[in-house]
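Chapter review: from sequence to fold.
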Amino acid sequence: MTEKWRKLPASSMLKLVFWLFTLAFLVAALVSPDRSQLWSGLKAIYTTPAQVTKDYFEVGSVSATFFNAFLVSLVCSLLYMLPGATANGTSFIGFGLTIGFSFWGMHIFNMVPCMLGVGLYCLVKREKLAKNVNFVLFSTGIAPIVTDMFLRYPGLELHGYTVGSVILGLAVGLFIGFFTPGGCAYSANAHKGFSLYSAALPIGMTSFLLRAVLYTVLGGQLPPVEAVLGPSRPGVFYGFLGTMFVLCMLLGLWKNGWSFRGYGKLLRSSGHKTDFSSEFGPAVALINIGVYGLFLMLYYTLIRGSLNGATLGLVLCMVACAVAGSHPGNVWPIMVGYVAASFLAKALCVGENFTLVINAQAIMTGMCYANGLSPIAGKYGWPVGIVAGMLHYTLVTCVPALHGGYLLYNGGFTACLVCLLLLPTLERFCKTKEERLAAKAR
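The token string follows.
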């Protein structure tokens, strides 16, 4: 039996990790000191608008947030159990993003309508849902706008769930999900695989369209952008994430014969158009999930960020790329770029107050998705990675004005914009690391 588990193929091992997180969320919900507030907390989460960052630890409770993450994770894990469904690096991105968002913007009420839209697409195209599970998860990137349809559209006052609002929310969700697969299929052509959050481009464009139609053309009142952030909870942050990442690393080491063999080679990978689970094996990919996760926790600790529920979700969203291209070796330049841009912006600030410090929640959230640019750093070198990080820092807080704060993939969409801005210049004036090495060898 032990040997059988050691030889699990990549898809099966990733599905096992999905279920590991699902179980962990349930256990965390049941052992949380405030578990008596679980049901009341869930009610608060389901009846609160999800626009911009809403820390569910503060909106509901710690136990309710973990239970919400359990329900979201359960749905995702069950989808990958459909006959014919396989899990790969892209699947891990979808899973990681979805469970990460369940800590500040997503729950089963606002994600299901979008998922049903992909199901409708499969019926129309006569395709199997099992072959489109990745798209099902990516379709939830604008779930907060579905919540607004349910709770308060077209005005600013909450009217709660009504027959009419539920029908409107379902219609908007179906629209989002129906067009997600087609958009995702073409997205990679725009950024040439240099943005790991490829689905953010079509999802972002859809969010722009919906914001324009619902709040400009049809005259709905766009709610003000108001974040809800709770206090730092280092015990929950380090206790839960530390346990999960250590377990992933240990599972990978056990499967790899208690060795880091092959991990050094992974750290030298550019991360461009790759799947670590197939290129280096599932064991090494699991090791990277653990090591990369601990590395991210160290970053947020060093910048003294608030370790609230939103930050916990951010780390899970960043770890989502740990199988499809991100690792400490190609992400640290992005981090340096963010820190450098923060100090430079402070030095050049012409206003009275400088609000975009490196540990501001908006900048921490931006950094979360800037790691999607890691293939640029891996392919062109760390100086270019630093520049990419600085560009992302500059743009990420401007994009919400275009979608009204409803796009959960805001930073991922910004990463795609950075690619569109930076890549033409890089391709014309810069050589990749491989090209530079080849030139030296002549």
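Two observations follow directly from the output. The mean pLDDT is 94. The radius of gyration is 21 Å.
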